[in-house]
């Protein structure tokens, strides 16, 4: 939280966007640092996150909470005539703690529940339906690409064989299938971790939405605005790193040229090095252990 607030370089009368509201922890602290003329717009596509938003936030005239994917960032900001006027933008990526902790959401391999995994339960197909329809080759690709799973082929085959015997409809059921398919190698993480991550990313279109939102972030921010992105696994971080690096350079055809047209000049300036959670923070919140914060400034 501290590095995020520092990274945003908050101005009391500024306009900020929390693109991943969750349970409002970041939004609450951002609002505390804004004056009466400041403004904060938050996004979340999870209806439970919207419903759980505390009254002291939703009743605050400086605050607006939008039920929408952050892939619609530019559209929603445009509807409020704020394109090019946002002073800071925060993305805290991935699944939220409440989603992991509620068994009926189907995100956790540690809690038995229906195999759903949708960020927005009102749209798309649950993981159980996706698993029932996907062919083995595509499943293997998803596990390898989105889970970086070494045993993708073995797991995909085990899942297909298991579904031939009956539907895979529970999280504990899937976790057991995966654990039995993998050799015991003394991994530090649960054997189903990468498989659950891969399926969740696939059915929610998480990486495609992230890439779209990052591109739109450049358009909505004013000069000097800060972009802060917290990622939790290498796939997200790789996308963020590549985007910020490319946006901080001149367009390739003009690199090294003495005069670069305005539209081909760098859109961002990298701010500092990636920030990891401190040992104290990880001790207090083990889920922060893989978090990485990258910061860039609109030029």
Tell me what the structure shows:
- This protein is α/β, with parallel strands linked by helices and 299 residues long.
- The protein is 42% helix and 15% strand.
- It is built from 14 helices and eight strands.
- It has helices spanning 2-8, 25-32, 47-51, 55-58, 73-79, 97-101, 127-133, 136-147, 152-165, 171-181, 193-204, 206-220, 234-247, 279-284, and strands at 15-18, 39-44, 63-67, 86-92, 221-231, 268-270, 275-276, 292-298.
- Strands 1, 2, 3, 4, 5, 6, 7 and 8 form an eight-stranded mixed sheet that branches.
- Helix 9 (152-165) packs across helix 10 (171-181).
- The radius of gyration is 21 Å and the shape is globular.
H-E order: HEHEHHEHEHHHHHHHEHEEHE
Query: Overall mean pLDDT score?
Result: 93
Distance between the termini: 25 Å
Strand tally is 8
* Helix-and-strand structural type: alpha/beta
Low-confidence segments:
none
| SS element count, helices | 14
Using only CA atoms, what is the Rg? 21 Å
Q: How would a crystallographer describe the biggest sheet?
A: 8 strands, mixed
Helix content: 40-55%
Write the layout of secondary structure elements.
Blueprint: H1 2-8, E1 15-18, H2 25-32, E2 39-44, H3 47-51, H4 55-58, E3 63-67, H5 73-79, E4 86-92, H6 97-101, H7 127-133, H8 136-147, H9 152-165, H10 171-181, H11 193-204, H12 206-220, E5 221-231, H13 234-247, E6 268-270, E7 275-276, H14 279-284, E8 292-298
Parallel strand pairs: 1-2, 1-4, 2-3, 4-5
Antiparallel strand pairs: 5-8, 6-8, 7-8
Helix pairs in contact: 5-12, 8-9, 8-11, 9-10, 12-13
